[in-house]
Amino acid sequence: MKRLNLTRLAAAFLLAAGLFTSCKSTPDLAPVDPFELLDGDAALYLSLPVQAHQDFVLSAIQKVAGANEADAQKIAERLNTAYIALGINGNLQLSCSGKIPQNFVGMALNEKKGWKPGVIAQQTVYTHQESLYQLCLPSSSNAFLSNNIEPMVLRFNKIAYSDQSISEKLLSESMNEGLYRLLHDNNTSDIVMYSPLPQAFMKSMLGSAGINLPIESFFAVLSQYRGVKEQFNVKLIINMSDPRTVKATSALLKTALFGVPAKISQTGQKQITITDLPVSKARLLGIIR
């Protein structure tokens, strides 16, 4: 799998959220669910309640991309929820809901600032000439960014204009309903993460214990760790590909995580659950390199 580095992630936040910091207006369409615009075959999904984790977003933008605190704050306070999908081919999709000010397009998205306009499926799309990210602002409530944005544009048109001639599947049409609800209906302040292709991410989550384990998928809930700003408290549900490996894997994890205040238990024939696992914000960023 092509690796996605931290600079790309922070650049995505900066470029997509740049629309919230600048002052021609965007169409006043009904809001479209940003989660529906993501691909259904991604390797990792992440639901991020931005207002509950502004410190994390600010840290990503400031430390990795070099934005100053004032600009980073302007970005974070205008975002509601950000959904991220990372594809097996290295494609990154960032879909946000928020409040997009008028007079943004003409002022901020121009060629002097590195943006070149184009049209995809009758929507204006801006390509950043340095990063090659594509940004679309089709309404006053939606913004999305990707290095391959056409599928997201088509899904937006399908929903916003009820265009059933578009064959591109919505996420709700391609993802298991129960899993969709777990990720989408995240009304808590927790970050929710799911991967159906976990091997690329387990080393960052578990360190050396996560290498070459026969894992089929994982689901994680990350909450603030006892008020410590730089750490998350993680509940990690690991689904194994072979039930015969569950006991041995549990023992391996207990040994590898010795001294870490985490609880490891078998919670199903093919399932291991780890609770109270401390994970630093830097390690979370490393998961989506």
TrEMBL record:
Q: Which residues form the signal peptide?
A: 1-30
Q: Keywords of this protein's UniProt record, alphabetized?
A: Signal
Q: What Pfam families does the database record attribute to this sequence?
A: TP0453 (PF20740)
Q: Which InterPro entries match?
A: TP0453
Residues forming the Outer membrane-associated lipoprotein TP0453 domain are 31-284
Q: What is the lineage of its organism?
A: Bacteria, Pseudomonadati, Spirochaetota, Spirochaetia, Spirochaetales
Q: Does the keyword Signal apply?
A: yes
This protein's name: Outer membrane-associated lipoprotein TP0453 domain-containing protein
PROSITE patterns reported for this sequence: PROKAR_LIPOPROTEIN
